[in-house]
Design brief:
7-stranded antiparallel beta sheet
């Protein structure tokens, strides 16, 4: 990184938006859980697609890589700068277009938080479907790049299902703008779908045309005590009969206990009273409590509405934070066909070293588990490989929500197979021949 390049970048975005001071760079150089660290010579904060294009052209001319960063809530190191790359912060892309109530769509800048998008949609009587605990910090751009899911996937699908169009800047500075939001369009391959989940390796997403959904104001939840994880999975066919079903979450006993202890609240049910807990959420235009209670009358559990319902999801949203307060865990985000969830947890438990603690929670309906191991020590790498191998062997994925990042690049080809991996790599080379966009993410550095 030369002084002349810094001067060129300042000429593009303004001096105040190129940060070189070490203290100012520090928050951009590590992830929120302080697990991944890197250094960047400067943080560049463009404010328009045209400025992003000029930044990419300037960096390409100098042969300097660029790492895009949104809310920096990822867990696999994909937005942490590496090897002297320029950190491209998308925090200034906070514009929100007017909600179109006829099409049920809105255009959001890449730096808009999920919570801000939800509030904007609700002010117009609609809602944004994707939701998870980091909603106040996680951004639209980051969610697009990782195809984020969260708790409502059972009803509305992942981020890919919400994206109707994108504006994005390619590595050569070309700007693609497809924000019309046409629900039916069959003119060739759909570039926005290609970019969703690409983790900033193919283009820099600057805006997205988002699908909105009805805002269901009446909610009811239940927490169900299950004898085992097998019992919990067995509830799914019955739960899917609920027309108002909005989320089906899994809390293993230790996860429930850790979160409640961290928050200083009484658990809704005794964590030692069951082998697994299922948190069910329903949302509709009319009160779904009776519908939920009738369906669950043969199960052990409690129905919660209003403040009690909010407390249940407050507990669920704080599991990750509660685990982090106990130490730096080995964190894995995997998914398998639901019938194999118990086998996955058993294989994980068998791989733990003496004294290690396993904390598991996740999204039951999608077979997505967040596996956290505290105290793995020198066995962390072996435990990691055992869990990821088990996920692949059981027909699942090594990443269900947080992406591959730099943490799992050695697993992508094994999971996808050589033909699919080769196709993905060919697309990367075609769109970013210099390899300057988020190098080391998804694919090993060549």
């Amino acid at each position: 990184m030369t002084g002349s390049l810094v001067d060129d970048l300042r000429a593009v975005v303004g001096q105040q938006h190129v940060l070189t001071d070490a203290d100012l760079r520090a928050t951009y150089e590590t992830d929120w859980l302080r697990q991944w660290h890197g250094t960047t010579p400067c943080v560049v904060r463009p404010g328009s697609a045209a400025e992003v294009a000029d930044v990419l052209r300037t960096c390409a001319a100098a042969g300097v890589a660029v790492v895009p960063q949104g809310g920096n809530t990822g867990l696999v190191g994909g937005s942490v700068p590496r090897a002297g790359a320029v950190l491209l912060s998308m925090q200034r892309f906070t514009s929100l277009g007017e909600v179109d109530p006829l099409a049920m769509q809105v255009t959001a800048g890449a730096g808009v938080t999920i919570e801000a998008l939800q509030q904007h949609a609700r002010a117009a009587g609609l809602d944004f479907a994707v939701d998870w605990g980091a909603r106040a910090t996680a951004t639209v751009g980051g969610a697009v790049n990782t195809n984020a899911g969260g708790s409502r996937v059972v009803r509305f699908g992942t981020m890919r299902a919400q994206v109707l169009g994108l504006q994005a800047v390619l590595a050569d500075g070309s700007v693609i703008t497809q924000l019309d939001g046409l629900p039916k369009e069959t003119a060739g391959s759909h570039l926005p779908s290609l970019l969703v989940g690409s983790e900033g390796t193919l283009a820099v997403v600057t805006a997205a045309r988002m699908r909105l959904v009805p805002w269901y104001r009446e909610t009811a939840a239940a927490v169900i005590a299950c004898d085992s994880l097998v019992h919990a999975v067995g509830l799914l066919p019955m739960l899917r009969q609920l027309p108002s079903l909005d989320a089906v979450e899994l809390l293993m006993p230790h996860a429930l206990a850790v979160a409640c202890r961290h928050l200083g609240v009484t658990p809704p049910l005794d964590p030692s009273s069951a082998g697994a807990f299922v948190l069910v959420d329903c949302a509709a235009h009319s009160d779904p409590s009776d519908e939920l209670a009738q369906l669950l009358q043969q199960e052990r559990g409690v129905i919660a509405t209003d403040a009690r319902r909010d407390l249940l999801f407050h507990i669920r949203d704080h599991v990750t934070i509660a685990i982090g307060a106990l130490g730096v865990p080995l964190k894995l985000d995997v998914a398998v066909p639901v019938q194999h969830l118990d086998r996955l947890v058993r294989r994980t438990t068998a791989a733990l070293p003496s004294g290690a603690q396993l904390v598991v929670f996740g999204h039951l309906a999608e077979g997505n588990l967040h596996v956290n191991v505290l105290g793995a020590g020198d066995a962390a790498a072996e435990v990691r490989d055992t869990v990821l191998a088990a996920a692949v062997e059981l027909g699942g994925t090594v990443s269900a929500e947080h992406g591959i990042g730099v943490a799992k690049t050695d697993w992508l080809q094994r999971m996808k197979g050589p033909a699919a991996f080769g196709a993905l790599l060919a697309i990367k080379r075609a769109l970013d021949p210099q390899g300057l966009l988020n190098p080391g993410v998804l694919f090993p550095v060549e």
